[in-house]
Amino acid sequence: MASNVILLITLALSNFICISFAFDPRPLQDFCVADPPGNTTCKDPKAVTANDFSLSCLNRPTDPFNAYGITAVLDAAATVPGFNTLGLAFARLEYAPSGYVPPHIHPRSTEVIYVLEGAIEVGFVTTYPEYKYYSKVLNKGDLFIIPVGLLHSQRNVARTNSVTAAASNTQTPAFIFMPDSVFAAKPDINSHYLAGAFKLDEKTVKDLQTKSWYNRSAKTM
Amino acid sequence: MASNVILLITLALSNFICISFAFDPRPLQDFCVADPPGNTTCKDPKAVTANDFSLSCLNRPTDPFNAYGITAVLDAAATVPGFNTLGLAFARLEYAPSGYVPPHIHPRSTEVIYVLEGAIEVGFVTTYPEYKYYSKVLNKGDLFIIPVGLLHSQRNVARTNSVTAAASNTQTPAFIFMPDSVFAAKPDINSHYLAGAFKLDEKTVKDLQTKSWYNRSAKTM
Amino acid sequence: MASNVILLITLALSNFICISFAFDPRPLQDFCVADPPGNTTCKDPKAVTANDFSLSCLNRPTDPFNAYGITAVLDAAATVPGFNTLGLAFARLEYAPSGYVPPHIHPRSTEVIYVLEGAIEVGFVTTYPEYKYYSKVLNKGDLFIIPVGLLHSQRNVARTNSVTAAASNTQTPAFIFMPDSVFAAKPDINSHYLAGAFKLDEKTVKDLQTKSWYNRSAKTM
Amino acid sequence: MASNVILLITLALSNFICISFAFDPRPLQDFCVADPPGNTTCKDPKAVTANDFSLSCLNRPTDPFNAYGITAVLDAAATVPGFNTLGLAFARLEYAPSGYVPPHIHPRSTEVIYVLEGAIEVGFVTTYPEYKYYSKVLNKGDLFIIPVGLLHSQRNVARTNSVTAAASNTQTPAFIFMPDSVFAAKPDINSHYLAGAFKLDEKTVKDLQTKSWYNRSAKTM
Amino acid sequence: MASNVILLITLALSNFICISFAFDPRPLQDFCVADPPGNTTCKDPKAVTANDFSLSCLNRPTDPFNAYGITAVLDAAATVPGFNTLGLAFARLEYAPSGYVPPHIHPRSTEVIYVLEGAIEVGFVTTYPEYKYYSKVLNKGDLFIIPVGLLHSQRNVARTNSVTAAASNTQTPAFIFMPDSVFAAKPDINSHYLAGAFKLDEKTVKDLQTKSWYNRSAKTM
Amino acid sequence: MASNVILLITLALSNFICISFAFDPRPLQDFCVADPPGNTTCKDPKAVTANDFSLSCLNRPTDPFNAYGITAVLDAAATVPGFNTLGLAFARLEYAPSGYVPPHIHPRSTEVIYVLEGAIEVGFVTTYPEYKYYSKVLNKGDLFIIPVGLLHSQRNVARTNSVTAAASNTQTPAFIFMPDSVFAAKPDINSHYLAGAFKLDEKTVKDLQTKSWYNRSAKTM
Predict the structure, then answer these.
(1) Average pLDDT of chain D?
(2) Which residues on neighbouring strands pair with residue F152, listed in sequence order?
């Protein structure tokens, strides 16, 4: 009988769930708490509590520093379900003395970085009319904005740990780390092609394709 | 067996309904009639009729005047399912001789008000660079526009009933009535805090928190 | 010396006015009253008055009925400068007993029609999966919604004048009247091509191309 | 028991599927392959392959020329599920020597046309301040852009077959063919009304309403 | 001669500056640094430096606490010109031991609040289906999100100063403080009307209309 | 006197050109032909001709193959002013037998690639939940879609020249070539930092920073 049930469900879905993208991009309700977290459907408002909009203890990260000297707590719909559909994400990063984040791109968001402790060098590269690198050392209390979609870099330039808060103007800004997405992509991108593009010999490229790159877990959105 | 069925449904849902928000905000079909009304999924187009896009007799409201001297018929996706996803809402309001709508805000829509009978004073307050109040008495045949997100007021200034038509450029403009959302919110907002913010004594605030405020039913969107 | 001045202006323009379309579609200010009306630049807020958001006497149109038995007052940024950038337009149409609006399309807006006097037949045609015509006779107090971009028709079916109010969810919905834009376009569209497309003989097409079509003045947005 | 199951499904749906339109129009994931094709829900990423983003042999259309001398292959989410949510559609059209596409409108997209073989006359009609027809003969290697929502025409002006590639900046641009949507709409639009609007006698209109018009199958999006 | 020059400028403006709102909301360039700060035109990219994207020493506010016990540094296009068009704003607020921000609304943005020092109670009120107040005490390291357009409150609940960082997902979120915009609006909103709406006697309303309310300077965006 | 003139211009600008970003993203007119090409202001419609929407002879590129074996003709607002504000760009690329385009990202657009001659291998890398490489060899008549913002690769795999047409759903998709934007950015990004990120020795990085990379002229948008 289960198959009949599945059939009914399938019919119901194909009839009822041809969700429409709307002509009108404004929200239809006050909020849509993700249920379960990470999903994009709405929790019954009666079951929503203030905790759905909150996260505690970002200042006490539970992960150790990764191989790049970074530990991050990222707050978006995946961890705080009340962020769902609201167009913001937030993160706290702690850098070991020599820690850095590899060059990367958020194709879907602008990012603002605010230094809570220590000193950070940040910079981004333009796309037009030239590859210009705008960079600056930020001290505690300083702030910098990374325009949407541009490649940027961040590294600790203090002798101590540094800490930053960062906000993105979308729920899932996407992370494209360089060179990770080039050399860590599986199956391998053609090594002869990459050797030409990167002006490296093919053996070096093949070697890079076997390495372990930046830790990109679910926590990095 | 029911639990198995629920399990199957849940699996089906998690596979099929991870709805994507699109890069492209344009609609994917001609319309998406809400099914059931108030929902955001689409009715099978074969079952759609012209009646799904229509509402009759707005000029004969069935509700009596509320305590503020207002009776309203509001036409949006909740009452006319064909409004779903199309980015418009419409309303007819009738005001008793001393009737008024409390100051309120539609954070998600611009509103245009057209006077069908009588005379109405309308006005809105800017946010920057100062709190400036722009107001005007409208007579029959006159029209006024309320910019999106600004606090506004409406009151009957005729000796007779007045009637207005109003259009909003979103399906669910949201209503934040002042002072209702401050004093009617449950659980109570801290009364000491409100007393400071409103420069009233705390006893007055506590008294206001027990009153019955503007009738905000499902009909008011 | 004038040419020097022009040069200076040109330089200034190329330096200063490379306006950017923003990543963020939300407005930057409370309103932007068009200055002059019809333009898209903002009037100095200090010179703005409540009258900039208002229009009077829509119920007393000054134009006589046109050849189709229609007289319209349309309220958008071109006539009420405060509509500029706010995403709404509003109109009052009066129909003589046999009056009608030819089939037309607003590619940029949804429209809601509310009957103030008389009786109107309205209808629209879908694009997919078939050309289905949804139509309805509306009496005084009835309302109908036309989904964005669909061809629609309106005609008076009362023995008396009829009157409608209409709202559109954009400032300039654009009007493409059929068959006007086909047969009134100048220079003429190839008549042999149109004869094939419309399954008429070429002589009839050429004759239609000389006729006077629906009065599409600035007032029709 | 089936009715109990349906009830459960309905409950589940009303709890889980109140999809929210988001404040933030950016995508939540890298892609959302339509599953099944034509639907707007996402295929499990683990089941996605490169073939979901590809279509082969557009240059060898399988349909014969239709009555207008056109054969088209259209690539959008309906045929290539990876197009879903990405905001692009693509088409290859082949024209017989006297082939043409009737005047039509895409209310939801701009279109660019590139001539691969032969010669095509293309043109569009503006809406404001006048019905101006901008047209041009394109030869092999030439390109033309049709602004969003404007009525446009395309006809082969070569003695041989012509071929064009076309791109639209939305997944489902919608096709409103003229005069098809006027005369092919069912049920019939009032013929007396159409006769007035088109300045034809009513008998001619009734005759046109019985004809077979441009072949608008699922393939034409 | 000056008048001729002005005439030339005016002509040039009407020809060149009829800025179009685009069909495509994506940015046309990497960034558009406001020039001058607060304006929306772009600085010549060759004159842009990294400092245009940065602000220093947010952690050392130069303003004393205002009458509500708040001192704020707000970073948006008005203070950091590189924020222009990028869809983010950022702020650092310091609260004296009994400091608070009155209930207010940002009609154009979601806000995330992160506690850097001390403890803050934050809360927001929903609009539908009821006025529900979701609130929470945040300690150092905790975070809370305020959905777009909802009325919210913030007050220091620590015995010491508290400090928060806040991000908004638009450049100018707009501030509507309650009750400021009601009682501070000039010219005065009709006091009889406000007395009814707030269930206060008219004398109290008139008294409130003479008070000095929350300090809303240019710094509060 | 020139300084007086400049002063007048500046005043005029600050009064007239405080362009507002609108609440409503729909276009205000049929088109906005860039004037001059590359600018975002509108040409006087009376001066617009069909040629403003057209480009000829894309199939006869005038540039020789660059060092990567590529010659491209790109059609966007910079070359065809009628593309301005319409949300599309188009390109024809010709590849020498061993030609390739380095891995790159368009943060602002989806791209569709259609093979006109020869055979091309294309592929893209996802960002979540893993760096997965989706690639395919396309032959003449085949098509592939690259989701917005993802890193992708293209290389000729035919023994002869290959030719592709490509469309992007924005006017200026932006090009971030890898590794160009990393190693060609000026001033140099810190070489020690890049050595760590790329797992290369610092000397190799410094050497790469002196090389000549992919030819990114104005023609590449």
Answers:
(1) 83
(2) F104, F124
- Chain C: residue whose CA lies nearest to A26: C26
Residue A84 has pLDDT above 90, yes or no: no
Minimum-distance CB partner of C21 among E28, E86, E108? E28
Q: The domain E45-173 is classified under which CATH number: 3.30.43.10, 3.40.50.720, 2.60.120.10, 3.40.50.1980? A: 2.60.120.10
Which candidate from D23, D110, D169 shows the least CB-CB separation from E110?
D23
User: What would the mean pLDDT of B114-118 be, rounded to a whole number?
Assistant: 97
Chain F: nearest CA to A1, how far in angstroms?
Answer: 36
What's the length of chain E?
A: 221
Tell me, yes or no, if C24 comes closer than 8 A to chain A by beta carbon.
yes
Per residue, the 3-state secondary structure of D65-127, as one string, reads CCCCCEEEEEECCCCCHHHCCCCCEEEEEEECCCCEEEEEECCCCCEEEEEEECEEEEEEECC
Touching subunits of E (3+ CB pairs, under 8 Å) are: A, B, C, D, F
Closest to C53 in 3D by CA, of C27, C29, C28, C85: C85
Q: What are the tokens at B97?
A: 């001789």
Smallest Cβ distance to A110: which of C23, C110, C148?
C23
Neighbours of D57 (CB within 10 A): 14
Measured CA to CA in angstroms, residue A119 lies from A99, D80, D185, E73 at distances of 11, 49, 68, 20
Hey, what are A53's tokens? 């909009």
- Chain F contact partners (≥3 CB pairs within 8 A): A, B, C, D, E
Give the whole-angstrom CA distance, residue F88 versus residue F76.
7
Q: Touching check for E11 and chain F: CB below 8 Å?
A: no
Predicted ipTM of the assembly: 0.87
Instruction: Say if the Cβ atoms of F107 and A153 lie within 8 Å.
Output: no
Beta-carbon-side half-sphere exposure of residue F203 (alpha carbons within 13 Å): 0
- Among E32, D43, D103, B130, smallest CA distance to C178 is for D103
The model's confidence at residue A215, banded by pLDDT at 50, 70 and 90, is low
Percentage with pLDDT > 70 across chain A: 82
- Write a three-state SS string for chain D: CHHHHHHHHHHHHHHHCCCCCCCCCCCCCCCCCECCCCCCCECCHHHCCHHHHEECCCCCCCCCCCCCCEEEEEECCCCCHHHCCCCCEEEEEEECCCCEEEEEECCCCCEEEEEEECEEEEEEECCCCCCEEEEEEEECCCEEEECCCCEEEEEECCCCCEEEEEEECCCCCCCEECCHHHHCCECCCCHHHHHHHHCCCHHHHHHHCCCCCCCCCHHHC
Segment C138-151, tens digit of pLDDT: 999 999 999 999 99
**Cβ separation of C18 and E85 shorter than 8 Å?**
no
Over residues C11-32, the mean pLDDT reads: 49
Is the per-residue pLDDT at C210 higher than 50? yes
Secondary element (H or E) of residue E102: strand E100-105
CA-nearest residue to A148 within chain C is C23
Report d(CA D31, CA F110) in Å as an integer.
10
Tens digits of residue pLDDT in A14-23: 222 233 344 5
Region of poorest pLDDT, from A162-171, C56-65, E114-123? C56-65
Q: Indicate yes or no: CB of B42 within 8 angstroms of CB of A20.
A: yes
Q: How many helices (H) and strands (E) does chain E have?
A: 4, 11
For the full predicted model, state whether its pTM sits above 0.95. no
Domain assignments of chain C as residue spans, ordered by start: 45-173
At residue F186, does pLDDT exceed 90?
A: yes
Distance from D2 to chain B by nearest Cα, in Å?
A: 11
pLDDT of res. F6? 28
Q: What is the pLDDT of residue D4?
A: 31
**pLDDT of B215 higher than 80:** no
Return the pLDDT at F34.
Answer: 81
B56 vs B62: CA distance, rounded Å: 12
